[in-house]
Structure formats: C-alpha cells, structure tokens
Amino acid sequence: MTAAWMTAILLGVAMIVAGVRLILWHRSASAPSPRRLIALLLLQPVCGILLFLTLFPPATTMSSGALRIATRGTSRLAAGPMVLLPEAPDIGAGEHVPDLATALRRHPGTSEIIVLGDGLPPRDMEAARGVAVRFEPRPLRQGISHVAPPTLVAPGSSFSLGGQLSALPRATVELLDPAGQVTDSVQADADGRFALTGTARAAGAVLFTLRVRDGRRTVEQANVPLLVADSPAPRLLILSAAPNAEVKYLRRWAADAGFAVTTQMSAGGGIALGDAPIAMDGATLRRFDAAIVDDRSWAARRGVLMDAARNGLGLILHPSGPIDASTRGQWQALGFGLTGKGGLVPLALPKPLAPTIARTRQGIGSDDRPADLALPDETLPEISRLGLTPEGQSAVPLLRDAGGVTLAAWRAVGSGRVALFTGIDSYALTLTGHRGLHGDWWSAMLAAVARPAPGMTPITTPGWAGERMILCGLTAPAEVERPDGRMANLLPVAGCGAFWPDQTGWHQLRRAGDGQATPFYVQAANALPVMRAARDRDAMLMLRPPASGDKAARGKSVPGSPWPFAIGWLLASALLWWLERARVGRAAAPQSAR
Amino acid sequence: MSANNLLARWTAPAKYRVMADSLALAVPLVVGLAAIGWRLSGIIAAVAATMIAAAIALFAARYRARRYDQAWLVHTLDRERPDMEDSANLLFADPALLGPLERLQQARLLGRIDRDSPDSLRPDWSRRLILLAGIMGLIAVGLALFWPRPGHGPPTLAPSTEALPATPGIPRLTAQNLRIIPPAYTGLPPRDSASLDARAPVGSRIEWTLRFDPQATVPAILPVGGAHITLRRDGPNWIASRPLDASFLYRVDPASGRGPTPPLHRVDAIADSPPQVRAISPAASLTMVQAGQRNWTPVFAATDDYGVAATARLRVTLAIGEGENVTFSEREIAVSGSGPPRDRRFSPRLDFGALGFSAGGDMVVQLIVRDMRQPAAQEVRGPSLILRWPSSRQPESSGLEGMVNITLPAYFRSQRQIIIDAEALLKQKRRLAADRYLARSASIGSDQRILRGRYSQFLGGEEEGEPEPPPNHGEQHSDDDGHDHDQGHDHDHDHDHDHDDGHDQGHDHGHDHGGAPRRPAPGFGAPEDVLADFGHAHDDSPASSLDPETRAILKKAVDEMWQSEVQLRQGHPDLALPFAYRALRFIKEVQQATRIFLSRVGPELPPIDPSRRMTGKREGLASRVLAISPVEGRDGPAAAAWRALGDGPGAIRGPIALDALDRWARGQSAHLPDPLALSGAIDAVRRDPACLPCRVKLRALLWTAMERPPAQPARRRPADAGGARYLGAIGGGKP
Questions:
Q1: Which of A119, A210, A267, B276 can pair with A540 through a Cys bridge, CB separation 3.0 to 4.6 Å?
Q2: Cβ–Cβ < 8 Å for A422, A319
Q3: What is the DSSP letter of A588?
Q4: Are A273 and B624 an interchain contact pair (Cβ–Cβ within 8 Å)?
Q5: Cα atoms in the Cβ-side hemisphere of radius 13 Å centred on A370
C-alpha cells in the first residue's frame, strides 16, 4: 500500500465524516438553507481531491525537444532557444544556468541535448551521462595536443618525452632544460608526433620547458613537470665465467651508481675472482634483486637461477661471444625468438650529438673525469651484437639500436623477469665518451627486470589551476601542501578525493602515516589550452550519442507540477470557509445561537 | 679688335675676381670639413673630405664665373657707362649686318670704350660672407680639436642604478663612471662605461670614479674573495683603480657595512687569444720541387685579435742525404710580414743555393709568429710545410714496396735479364764468331746456374755448393741491358759499405748462430743475403719459410732453369729460351705467392688437447677478492640548494643557508661553466632571500653546475595480491 493510497483513503473517510457532520448540523439548524448545504457538500470532495492532487500531482508525459546547450566557443551567431552555461559567451538570448544539471532539472523530460561550441567542461560530464548528447567536435587549434612526460625518473637517467601537436605538421619541437638551454630539438612527423630526450640530475622536482616553433615563430611554450626520485638501490649479482673487460666495466658502473654489487668471476679450476664467494642457492639469491649472467655462467647454473627468477629475481642474460646451439635452444625455450643469422654483426650506434647539446646532457666534470672527456668522439666504437634478435611472441622489446634492431627484450617468469641482451663488449662505449649510453642501456634493463620495491606512486593526471582535480589512492583523510605552504584537507570518498588547486606549481600530497609526500604539478590556468581542449573533446566523444530507439522511449512520465492543484485547493478551501462562515443568505442572525 | 677679344678683355677681371671670391669663401669651409673628418676617422678621411670639398668648390666657382658673359657685359656697360648711350650691344654686332647709322654709332662706341679700365666692372668681394665662412671654419677646426674624447679628461658621471633605499645619514652611491684603459699594445682607445659592469681585455686598467651622497668617509670597493680596494678622495668624487688580470665580482660599499648590502657588479677579463697561422700556398703539406726550380716562396697568413708582430721567425730544417745517411740541419730565419697587423702575410723567399738544398733532400719550413701582448708575447708555431727534391738516381718508392725491391726481386729481374741477354745474343748471332757465340752463351748459362743455385737454397738441400761469381760479369752486360744492370751495381756497393756493420749487429744480438754468418758470394744477385747478414733466420734454411705449394712451384721453376742452363751451356740460347720463359712465369707465380705468404707469423695452432688442461703446477694460485671503491658524487651542496630553492620536495621557503654552497662553488670553480655568475647569483639570494627572480636564476645556474650521476634504474612497484596470483598462474618459460 503506497502513501498515495493511504492518503486517498484518509481523505475519503474525512469527506464522508465531514458530509455526515454537515447533514447533522443542517438538521439541527434553526433556519436551514438547503442550497448552502448542497454547495458545501459538493465543495468538500472537490477540496479533498485537489489536496490529494497537490500532494501527488498527476504524471504528465512531457514532450520536450532536444535542449541546445551553449558552451565555451559558441558562435555568437547561434540562434534559437538555448541554455547558456557560464563559460558560454554572452549571446544575449537564452537562459543562463550555473551548470548542466540545473538546466536538466529546469527542463524535465529532456532526453537529448545538442552541445554547441567546444564542449562541456569536466564539471558537467556527470550530468551529461543521463542524456543522449549530440556534439560536432571542431578541429583543434594549433598547439600541443598531448604531452606524456615520464611519470617517475631516476636520478641521472635519460628520459624520453613523447607528445603530439595539432595542426602543426613538421614543426620544430625543442626541449629546454631548467637552465634554459636547448637540450634536444626534433622535427615532428606529418601527424605532429614527436619524441624528445633529456637527462635528469639529482633527485627533486624539475620543470623542463617544451617549445614549439613553426619557422621562427614560437607557437606554444609549456612547462613539462618531471619528478626525479631516488629508488632503493638494487642489490646486484654479476656472474661471469671469465674475467673480462665487459664485467670489469659493468662492475665499475654499478659500484659508481651506488648499487650493492657482488661480482663472481670464475678463472677456471675452481678459482674465483671478484667479491667474496657466495653459495649459489635459493636462499642466497633471494638476497639479490637482479643478476647479470653471461652465457657460460648461465649454462652451469640455470636451474637455481630460474628458480630464483620465479621467486622474483630479475635476470639479465648476455652472451660473451657467439652462442652455441644448446644455449640458443635454452634461450628460445625461455620465450626469446632468437631468429636471424648466427654469428656476430656490428651494432648500429646513434650518431654523436652536437657538442652544444651533448654538453647540456651531462653535468659538470671532476678532476678524475673532465667534462670534455665525456664528450663523445667523432668516431664510433665498434661494438657487435648477436645476429639473432631476441624478439618473440612472449618477449617485450626493451632496447633498440640506431638501426631499429631489438637489442634487448624481457619477459615475465613467475613473479620475476628475465631479460636477454644481445650486445657484446658494450664496455667499449665507456672508453669512447659514450658512458651515458652504456649506463642508459644497463639501467633500463635493470629497471625492467629488477625485483620490485615499494616506493612512491606518482600522480599522473594533469591538473590546471582553477579546475577540480581528483586524487585517488587515499585510504584516510589526507592533506595537500600548496606551493606557498598552505594546506588543504582532502576527504576521500571511495578512495578518491577532490582538490581545487588555485595556483600553479608543485603541490605535495601527504597521506596520513606515509612519511614521503607525493609531489604533483599543477599547470597555470592558461597553460596548454589545446591539450585541455583535446581532453574535453575526447571526454565529450565518449558520452552517449543519440541512438535510433531514443524517439520511442521519449514519452516517459514525469511528476507534474503540484502548484495549480495547490492554488485550486486553496481557492476551494477559502470558498468552503466563506460558505460556512458567511452571513449572506442567512435570514436572520439567530440570537439564540449566541 | 674683334668682338671676341673685346669680350674677353672686358669680362676677364670680373671672372678672376668672382673665382677668387668663391675660393676665399670655400677654403675655410674645406679646412673645417677636413678637420672634422680627421677627428672622426683619421687622416684618410681628412684627405678624402678635402678632395671632395675642393672639387665641389672649384665646380661652384666655375659655375659662378660662367655667368659673366656677353649679356652681362652689355647690361653692365649700359648701366655703368653713360657714354655707351644704351647701345653697348652694338659693340658685339657684326658690322656687315648693320645699317650706316648703326655702323657710325659702333665706331663711336669703340672709340669711347677705352676711356675706362675693365677693372672697374669687376664685382666687389663678398666680404661679409667670407668673414662668416672664416668664422665657421675656425669653429669647426676648434670643435674637431677640442671636443672631449671619451676616456680622456675628467669623466662624466652617470646616475647610479643600484636602487638602494635611502637611509638618512648613511652614504649612498649616487653617480658612477668606470673607465677602461686597455693595454697600449691592443690599440684600443680608452672608454668610459656608465655601468659598473664591464668587459675588458686582460691587462686593462680599470678606474672607478664614484660619488656618494651624503659624502662618504671611508668607502671601499670589495671584490668577492679578494682584498678590498681603497678609494681616494678627489674633490667631490672618489677614485680607485686596479689592473685587470682576471674576471672578478665586486660591490661598492659606501658606508663600511652600515647600510644595506649593495648589489654585485661583474668585470669580465677577455683573454688575449694566441695568433693563428695557416699556410695559404702551397695548400698541401708536401710539395715536390719542379724541374728547374731554384727557389721556393711559401705564403703564410697569421691572424690575431689585436695584432701579429711584424717580424716572425721561419724555422728551416734541411734533410740532406739518402737512405740511412741523412744529415739534418736546422736554422731560423727572420721574416718580416706585410699587411695590417691583425692579418699579416709572410712570404719568405728561400733560395736553394743559399740554403744548401740539393736533390734528394727534404726542406721543412715552419713559421713561428708572436703577437704583441705585453709583457710576454704569445708564440705560436704554424703548420710544417715540406718541400721534397726527389733524387734523380732512384725511382720513387716507399714502405713495403722498397723492402720488396731490395730483398726478393733481384732474382726475378735476373731471370728476365737472362732472357734479355739470350735474345740479344740471338740477334747478334750472325755477326759473332762461333766460339765467341758459344762463350757468351755459356756465360749466360753460368748466370743461369747462379740463379738456379739461389732458388735451390729455398728448396733446401738441392744447392750445389757455393755459387761462383760469373767470370765475365763486367764485360758482358754492357750494351743493351741498361737499368737493371746499374741496379745490380748499386746493390753491390751498398752491400760492401754496410758489411762490417752487419757483422756487429749480428753479434750484438745475443743469439748464437754458430760462428760468423755465411759470407755470401759477391756479385750478381747478392743483396738477397741481407737476411743472413742483418737478420737472423731461426730456421735452418730458407726453405722452411715457404709453404708446400710455393715450394712446388719453385721446384718447377728450378727445373726449367736447369733445362735452360743446359741449353745455354751447349750454345743453344734459342732452345733455352722456352725454358727460361717458363721459369720466369713460375717465378712470377712465386712472387705473387710470397708477397702474401708470411710463414713466420701465420698462426696454425695445434688443436687444443682438453686432457692436458689444468694439469700444470698451481702453487700460489687461489681465489682473490678484487676490491673496488665507488667514485663518490661531489655535488651534494649544489643538489641540496637546488632542491631548497624550488617548490617541490625539499623546498625551503624562507632564507636558505648558502654558506656550504658558496664554499662548494669556490672549490669546484675549475669545473663550473661560469663560476662568477654562480657566485653572483648566490650573493643576490643571500642579500634578498625573498627575491623570487634571484632564486629562480640561482636555481637555473645550479642546474648547469650539478653532476649527472650514473644512470640509476627506477624500480618497478610490487604487484598487488591479484597481480601476484596472475603472475603465478601464467608461470613462465622453462629452459
């Protein structure tokens, strides 16, 4: 039994009781007026019905058309009835609403909206999910439509920055380091895509600058935030079946980078060189995060190494020369394709950079290692690789040489990973001023396979000042420290909290019970306008477009307005009151009644 | 008197007067212009200005004088001379065209005209204009002479730009001037700088002229990290100076630290770069002497930022002689250059006769120039140019080719020689007597035997004793075998000269070969024995240095030689020729083979016997720990300050302790790209910790002053429970 039914029964009972009372009253009256009695008896049910309708207005099938919504960038020449959102230009004619949800509430029954202009802002996306959206995206303006900075960069590593330009084919894109020097410059391809390279220094929050130039004109310039954070130094095991230059320079690199390195070089006849000998078993290998193993050491210990890899150890295999058929078969069984001709082929190295750019990629020198010594020679070292490429169906390519040939690939094995590097004698890079490339290769492989370590989870969503951001991964109330030191509290709902940045700069999210803050960058309100427009446009295109069945489903009933019935009920009640109280029509005031 | 004469006589004084008047007007102006030109850009400009102005003045004078023509004369005579009765025009009319009355009047006028001299008609001097021009010229000359030059005389002070707040009672810099007096050798004029920052050549003198308000008592100039410079009072100004030997930062302290800290200023010293020398001609470093050339003139260009000394030295090194008998002599010749000081040309003329340069020698020249730096000039040596005079005696050869020429081909030429001799003998057969023919044939056969003996040595054991010298070596090869024969003689001579040395070397070497080296037969084909003399063959015979294939070919060659020798000895050079040719072809094959074949270094290692591995003595061999110590990063203070200046993690919004950074920057100044700029930026932040642009600038500079640590890996994050289950489920490859 619904509330309407109970109300109706109550009202019905009340009408009957009122009617009986009226009749009894009329009988007992000294000068009864039958006309008044009839009027009163008729008005009572009218009044009751009107009250019921006021409380439960009848459903109306509103037949409303598509609502036209004007957003930012709507043409001033757009005519016809429309709803103006706050971002829309002041067209004049039209209904001003604070947001889309209000507009839909004011126009009940709206099942379809036509969005004019650039599209709805993120604020109205939630409201727009309930209706079909008709939207014709306009082509984007010239500018940066997308930038993907690396989420987290390790100190000293080189990073790659990808992005896309809109309406700017073959424009020049430059990356400026925090000192304002051009550290990379490329030409975007015909679709506007580009990839730039830079190098990080010590840990901290860095702003690089992306500059797009079309000829001599600077089209757009934008800050690219980069978070350089320390990771726990990996514990590294280097196994070599013979002392050689490759293992010497690997050990030097790992020691200088601050890793805990254990090197085991076999010199034959049970003699081992390097660090103090360790027992090669599961318990020992669990203490290491990654192991760099050459082909001959691998052949001797592959069982224990693979068991350790399944338990999370990262394994980097590399040949010390041409490999034999059995090693090739074993590595193929791991999932590496190893197709191609056998033997060794020369490895294509990238061309040396221009000295001005190379200088911005490296830091200052020292007494032991002068800066100009680290500049690459004009002549490239001769480094070879296996003729076999490690690409396979289950292997992920990791490094490529300048000719596009895959040099290294990895695949998951249990909870660990195995990588295969086909380069041979990569140490020659460090001797010819390409120390950076050597470090980049090996650290990329280590980063791909090393045992996972807990650490900061960076916030990847770009934010703009004056626009709501959603920060997720919150389990308890958290705080955001603004660039000027003011704090803002976040109240998470379902793990996410909203934050309204009001200024540009690095903000820090501090979670309760987490000592390390997570920095994130908020762009200025007018920065990267094309990228913001592209984001909104993509979100608009993901909304539900009008389908063919929409017309049939349109006549749905919605509750009607109670106000006409309320006014009617008020008038009827007033008339009722007047009829009961008025002296009009009464012959004489019955004195006895007093 | 004709009309023309009359006209010339009566207009000449006026023309002369007006030209003199024009020149009198022009001369002061021209002098003034010349003075201004001299002041602005030297004497050349003065001369040019004089020439142009004088030309214009002459042209104007002629133009003015041209106006005094017949029309002017007629007009003037009519106006000035009443006795001309307004008919002066008749003076110049053709009498033939005139009527009788007009002719009468013309005669009267001609008679009357000489009553006055033509001088009376000349115009007056334009005295006021001449006076005006004179005054203007004097003013121009005066201005050119006495207009103040920058860098001379008392400086004009510029208002201060330090923009420090004024505090009552504490002196403040209000006006300043920085005078830079470059060293005289640079040839740069002194200049004044309104700013306190400047760039100047090293060795310049820097003079400050400063004014303070209210008047300071003990102001000072405080260089960063150096002794302070005291200022000397000079009227209302304070003066100080110091020589510029290195770039420095300084601040002007007017009140000995009582007021606010003034900003830093920077004076950059521009180092004098050493001169550059390049060779203009010849372009290549090695030149050959042309036939008939008696002297050589290499041309060098020397450039410098301030000037190259007019005289340079040319180092001439002569290498005279050939082979190992080369004597070197070195001398230096003074050369004077031509052209402007910044780009001088030196083109010394080297006379071969005077230097003693002759055929078969090398002359190496190198120009040594100095710039004009004081006190010590910078000396730079230019590229070396080599002039080679090839010896006429020996064909050009170098490297391996020469070696091969000496050791082996003597044989091969000789086989060809035998063929040539035999063919020559066949041609002379008709002219020769039979016995003589036989004798010569036998002589060639003897040569063939010696040659066969030589080759037999390579085959080992087949040698037939010591080859004997040919009995008639000298007389035989006289007419038609030219060059090769000479060659043989040369080798003989060399051999004889060097023979004793060869013995010494052989003994010094410490190898005992069992007595003195075998004495080779002097004569034809002897030089090949240099191996026996100078080297020491470790094999028992040369035979073992040949591979079996070559030996087989050589064997065939020796067989053919044997046949050839038999026929020659029997007096049948025609029958011997086919064998000789075949022998030559085989020897050619051997020659090709021996040039590639190097038996002593060819690695034909025996296969490894695994059963013998690790069976040697192993005392003293044990596992070793090889220690390694990582290189420590040294940019800790820079990285910490860089983080503190930002707004990310580690940022400090208030004042930052910069002492550690300052100390670090001083210690690392050798490695920093611009240590002065970094010091200046540190100072700016220290002075005003709230200055946001200063912090941004320091942070940007610190980026260039940081090391790039070795690339570290960014560790991946652990998988959550679901991820771990998934990874466990998919397993992995099994080797």
A1: A119
A2: yes
A3: S
A4: yes
A5: 3
Using 50, 70 and 90 to split pLDDT, how confident is the model at A43?
confident
Minimal Cα–Cα distance from B619 to chain A, Å? 12
CB A501 within 8 A of CB A482: yes
The CA distances from residue B392 to A387, B360, B405, in Å, are 56, 7, 18
Q: Residue holding tokens 């000298």?
A: B474
CB burial string B592-611: b at 16+ within 10 A, e below: ebbeeeeeeeeeeeeeeeee
CA-based nearest residue to B450, from B425, B431, B473: B473
Q: Which amino acid appears at position A127 of this protein? A: A
**Chain A residue closest in CA terms to B635:** A202
- Report CB contact under 8 Å: B646, A153: no
- Mind telling me how many Å the CA of B554 is from chain A's nearest CA? 40
CB contact under 8 A, B708 and A310: no
Distance between CA atoms of residues A438 and A442, nearest Å: 6
- Rounded to a whole number of angstroms, the CA Rg of chain B reads 51
Stretch among B99-113, B143-157, B417-431 having the lowest mean pLDDT: B143-157
* CA distance to A401, A419, A434, B333, per residue, from A409 (Å): 12, 5, 22, 68
Residues in a beta bridge with A58: none
* Residues 27-66 of chain A whose Cβ lies under 8 A from any Cβ of chain B: none
Kindly identify which residue of chain A lies nearest to residue B631, measuring between CA atoms.
A256
**B708 contacts A156? CB cut-off 8 A:** yes
Cis peptide before A277 (omega within 30 of 0): no
What are the tens digits of pLDDT across the range B536-550? 444 444 445 566 777
Q: Which two tokens stand for residue B149?
A: 């030059």
* Chain B environment of A452 (Cβ under 8 Å): 715-719
What tokens appear for B712 in the block?
């570290």
CA distance A333 to A317: 14
pLDDT of residue B353: 87
* C-beta separation of B201 from B174 below 8 A: no
**ipTM confidence:** 0.77
A390 touches chain B (CB under 8 A): no
Distance from CA of A178 to the nearest CA of B (A): 6
- Considering B187-196, B296-305, B493-502, the range whose residues carry the highest mean pLDDT is B296-305
- Please report the beta strands in B214-261, taking only residues with DSSP state E, as ranges in sequence order: 220-223, 229-230, 232-234, 237-243, 248-253
Nearest CA-CA distance, residue B723 and chain A, Å: 9
Ordered DSSP codes for A185-232: EEE--TT-EEEEEEE--SSEEEEEEEEEEETTEEEEEEEEEEEE---P
The span from the CA of A262 to the CA of A452, in Å, is 19
Tokens of A271: 């003699």
Helix (H, G, I), strand (E, B) or coil at A163: strand
Pairing of strands A290-294, A406-413: unpaired
For tokens 């000719």, name the residue: A403
Angstrom CA distances, B705 to A364, B638, B658, stand at 6, 7, 15
Which of A156, A366, A452 is facing B710, going by the closest CB pair?
A156
| CA–CA gap between residue B607 and residue B613 (Å, rounded) | 12
Q: Look at strands A112-116 and A67-70 and give their pairing.
A: parallel
* Beta partners for residue A70, in sequence order: A84, A116
